[in-house]
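Friendly challenge for the regulars: who can give me the structure tokens for this chain first? No prize, just bragging rights.
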Amino acid sequence: MNDLSPQLSQKPSSIQEPSFGQNESKSMKEKDRQVLDIEPATSVRPVTNVHSSRKGKVEANKLQKRLRRNVGNAIADYNMIEDGDKIMVCLSGGKDSYCMLDILLNLQKTAPISFEIIAVNLDQKQPGFPPEVLPDYLSKIGVPFHILEKDTYSVVTEKIPEGKTYCSLCSRLRRGTLYGFAQKIGATKVALGHHRDDIIETLFLNMFYGGKLKAMPPKLLSDDKQNVVIRPLAYCKEADLEAYAELKEFPIIPCNLCGSQDGLQRQVIKDMLQQWEKQHPGRLETIFAATKNVAPSQLADTDLFDFASLKIERPVEQNVEKQSEQKEVKQKAQRIDMVNLWDAPNTNNQDVTL
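First reply, four minutes later:
Bragging rights claimed.
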């Protein structure tokens, strides 16, 4: 799209507003039965199992508050959003980016600062991608947006051999396009929908397959220093986001590009971590806490810590005493050398005269 002004089209009637009830004429009792009927996810542990409308409402309220609190804490801890910021929210059509947009919109209403939100989607021309879903949804909720079109799908499938994963090249192409567009529209921050579990998975991916101790930071300055990337969902569990997306009934668009590949390294890591969490509840939270509590002197990276310059540091009194002891030892050694010299045999068979 050539026009850089965000779209604000009329609300179409085909997209339903996410709500607890679809028909306003239904009784409250009927609406209550529709609240938070969450099915257990196949790859994540379900947050709640709702057995009654009252309990469903309570759990839904807790879930929403927990997510908003986690996002708010992440924003505060890393100074993600400042007064006057123009936030470019990258919306893929997946559950995470929908949740991020929804939570940021709610926080925008109560935040002590003023900031602007613009949604941006990159249509990568993947087969079967429904181009009308996101524009209809964003128009419905009244969020200004841009839809970018760039055929990265053909590039990825052409460059990556069959059987190899597309993710690395796909993400680089997508990131480059979004970074460039952020500068064009004057966005001060680029918001991505990576959550806590994504960060942990990336940590282990880099350790197991890359030999690096790195993950995805909640806030990042791009290499060219032209864009600041923020991840407001950094403290949020994937299970919570899964439940929230079902609660809100977002029109999810599956990723048929990487989702169609079997045996991805990330999926292997995800399965491993979920097994750990099942056997030892709370382990993922502990692992994530470790990424915020790094001790470079206890690792082995000479770029992070100056091991070569380590020296003993003792009080002056101890140093003086040590120097005195060293002087005494040296004097004794000299006396021994003199004795050895005079006691040495005369190899020339000559008398030594004084």
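The beta strands are 86-90, 116-123, 145-149, 189-191, 219-221, 228-230. Residues 33-263 form a domain with the Rossmann fold fold (CATH 3.40.50.620). Your move, everyone else.
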